[in-house]
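re the bet — no i am not wrong, look at it urself. input seq straight from the record:
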Amino acid sequence: MNSGSARHCRLAIAYVACGVLAFLLGASAWSATAELPGEALEQVVVQDYGFEKTLLTFARERLGLFGRGAALPDEHPIVSVLGMILRQNEWRKRPLFKIHHPALIAMFGHRKLICADDFLNDSALQQLRHLVQTQPNAEPAVSDLDRRVHALLDVKSGLAIVPRAGEEWLSPYEVRKEQAATGAVQGAIVAAYADVCRAFLEDDPKEFAKTAENLARLNRTAAEQAGAHPFRLRVDRINTQLQPFSQSAVLYLLATMVYVAALLAGRRAIATAGFALMVAGFAAHAAGLIFRTVLVGRAPMANMYESLVVAVAGTVLLAIVLDRIYKNPLIGLAGVLLGFVFMVIAVKMPLHQSRIAPLRPALQSSWLTYHVTTVMLSYSAFALSFLVSVVYLLRRAAAGNGGRARLLKAL
């Protein structure tokens, strides 16, 4: 092996090592979730937007509604949600909400983090109305901030853990406030929830765990009687804990780095490692799609988020097949690069666009699956062929000894 090849090999090995180290550090950070004294609470069933989900999923989604850059405490999401409900006055004074629009930053005294009370006081509301009238381009930012602030205020009413067969579920607070007609089971759930709240406020871990177990038992029994599917709830919890789409994005990034290293070193063995990472990323991606299908009860192609993750899955699958046929690492590199970029876009989408919601009436057709699947696969094929061509042209242009001239001649 000449000195140039040896140098490229060392560079490739260092490149791969850095990528693996970054993955391990990221994985350890994801797993460092604060413990919950009453783990049974994670399995409490909540109805949200017409779908039943675990309290763990509900809590994470509610925190996600606070938006990018929210200054949330490093604690279990259910603990945060209970704190928002039981100590709302304190939470309203916490600088949780990050603002990005220059006009809003200036309005709030050049602060980038504000609390709910900053937004809700009469003076601020008047200034916001004036801002929207004088600067229409600020309206989306104001609407987004309003949505995020009300995500905090609406947690209490959104905690629908009191099942009712054939009817919309209620939160314990709605049951008390409206004196809704409920049976003995529903009354027991409200009482059990009150016990959990009392133990939480008294900061008694043993009592909290005991009361959480009782609430989970009563709630799960009533939820199943009201039609909630135990299998779907198990899938919901697994999906929330594993976050397969996020995992696939990391694996696609690692595969991209390995494929680049293979091209630098000119070693097929390194490209094989990149292919293995691409397959692993696709496996995580496919698992996420299967989970999503189970949770929504249909093909996951009803909005921009779902269509994007399906199209990216098709792109990576095509890259896997074509890589095996032609043994060309450029195909694999194009596939995983597209996979990484677009899965990051999907994962970073605002939660109100990506969370599970009822299907719009216009899309309630059996043709949805066939039509959108065909369209998404065509997008996948086009995206892959486009990027393979771009990578090929860039590689030819970067080649030494008249590579650019050969490229122009080939064109």
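see?? Residues 73 and 206 are 23 Å apart (CA to CA). told u. also Residues 8-30+243-410 form one domain. so pay up
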